[in-house]
Amino acid sequence: MTTSSEGKSSVTAVPASSNMRLAKRLRRWLRRDPSLFFMPALLIVSLAITVAVHPQFSDFDLQSLAMGALPLAFAAAAQTLVVISGGIDLSIGSVMAVTNVLAASAMEKASFEQSLLLAVAVLVAGAVIGALNGLIVIISRIPDVVATLTTGFIWGGVALVILEKPGGGAPQEFLNLGTGTLFTPWLPNALVLLVVAVCVIWIPLRRSKLGLQLYAIGSDRIAAFRSGVNIDRTRFGAYIFSGLFSAVGGLGLTMTTGIGAPLAGVYYTLSGLAAVVVGGVSLAGGRGGMLGPLMAAFVLTLIPTDLIFLNIDPNFGQVIQGTLIVVIVMIGGFMDMERNRK
Amino acid sequence: MTEPAKPVFSRLGAAVTGGGLLSLLRTRTIVALIILLFALVAGIELTRPGTVNALWASNMLLFAAPLGIVAAGQTLVMLTGGIDLSVASVATASAYLMATHSGLGVAPAIFYGLGVGFVVGIINGIGVALLRVQPLVMTLGTGLMTEGLLVVYSQKKMAEAPRVPQFIEDLGAGKFLGGIPNDLIVWVPIAIILIFVLRRTGYGRLIYAVGDNSKACSLAGIRVWRILLVNYVTCGLLAAAAGLIIVGGTDSAELRLAEVYLLPSVAAVIIGGTSIFGGRGGYSGTIIGALILTVLNSILTLLDVPESVRQILYGAIILVLAAAYTRLTD
């Protein structure tokens, strides 16, 4: 890939002014990760459409957008990690459900300080569940699609054991972490929470050895193995972090809905994967970043909202989501074909 | 990728050394499956004497048929290295559409139901075969679309309550000749045709070839896209047919009717020895896989545990079986 671009640039050799160099660098970025440009554009367009169909767009709408997108964004983040490593995790929604009901049933009568401690415990639980998923995938040697489809089924059962019907709760101060605003009404806590969580978990991970190994085993497992990457350990790490992000998502669900619902998580497996695909992460692994899927989560949340404003059945949102996934993957496929042809 | 050579070698080894039990199981995995099935049945009879009788057996077949039919499509798709995650949505949509059109008569209603399977199947096929979208993504997308459209449709059709015609009810729940389930009339021919096609026809061999190495196939001049397209359409039609049988059994068309069939449909194929990477396996294993899962379900029902615990046990057993199987054949 790089060689072809070098070859091409030498053909179109031009006097290297700083302007041209910048343009070239931009073009290289675009080629490496088109979603970096595509996604902000898509997000801005969908925000613009929202404002256009709903001119009285207020800080309240922004808050509900951030609250709606929060769990989905974490589901997407969890999936992104695994997909970058060349795998897939179809149990994310169920893990979110487990952590959601765990949090809601444990925090019901807790004070704010206690609930913060419990939140940490829930995060640990999420990481442990992720670790179990990873162990099952690695030890059983069952293909990850099937293995995580099955563990998802199991965790769904666990969520129902913990809380049979929607219920539970959390102290108001804890809920405010997801529903309130910071400094101005235009800065929802949910958004702050998302940014903080991603900065605390993803950025150090991305810069660590494990982060590099995730990309390495995703792009070429055999090459990574021959360069001394421990494939099993890296995949294990991916699932642990996926569990951790799912747990944050589960906590986010508790904050934004105020209760625990054993069946609420299921939706997030598929929608999270949709956000990953729309966000430009290659399902073949090794390519893509975290920013794209997070923005895609907001876009996917805006679609049903806009449909409601337009007086269209919001259930069409799911249809649009399905269409978007397919179309975007097709575009990606065509771009790959073009690239290979050059 | 020396997989295809392996069974030949081990079979040769078994012939030379007389073959231990393990190598017999390895070469004839279906034997292991049948042993497991009988062990499960024996387990039921030992712990709850009197449970296993003709009525029980005929009920098992009745419940296994829709799963077996969905898994038939899944087998076809998996043999080519794909997967179809839209089968559950297709089955539900087929049942619902059939039920809302039952006023037109049975045949048109069934036509509408199967039509859903055909349309979704052809979209899947075009996406996977011609536009080269990964099967997982493609079928996930069409599954979401089908589900969403169905919800929209169901709200529009609120006035016309879905009604399951008598014919479908008989098909999904009835028995004839003192205990043979009616849905076997659909399942048995499908099974015979599928096994015959896979084993004895050129088309069947092409399916294995595409699953084994689709690049080599297209270099050899095989139109891979045709095979994939036909497979996905068949899978959609089979899922739709299964949806009709399922709704015949429950007698009420709900929006989450066939959701529970997605995991078992994949699990039956995997337990039945078809590789998810394609090129290896067959439908006879899937049939036994579907029977094993149905018997398992019946055991869990007998245990009288809450639905949630049942779900956990069912999933765990599927994991253990699939893991054992993957280990045995690897």
Which secondary structure elements does this structure contain, and how are they paired or packed?
The complex is a heterodimer of chains A (about 350) and B (about 325).
Chain A: H1 2-11, H2 18-32, H3 35-53, H4 59-84, H5 92-107, H6 112-140, H7 144-162, H8 172-179, H9 189-207, H10 209-219, H11 221-226, H12 231-257, H13 266-278, H14 291-309, H15 316-341
Helix pairs in contact in A: 3-14, 4-9, 4-10, 4-12, 4-13, 4-14, 5-6, 5-7, 5-12, 5-13, 6-7, 6-12, 8-9, 8-12, 9-10, 10-12, 13-14, 13-15, 14-15
Chain B: H1 5-17, H2 21-27, H3 29-47, H4 54-79, H5 87-100, H6 106-130, H7 135-156, H8 166-173, E1 175-176, E2 180-181, H9 184-200, H10 202-212, H11 214-219, H12 224-250, H13 262-271, H14 283-303, H15 307-329
Antiparallel strand pairs in B: 1-2
Helix pairs in contact in B: 1-2, 2-3, 3-14, 4-9, 4-12, 4-13, 4-14, 5-6, 5-7, 5-12, 6-7, 6-12, 8-12, 9-10, 13-14, 14-15
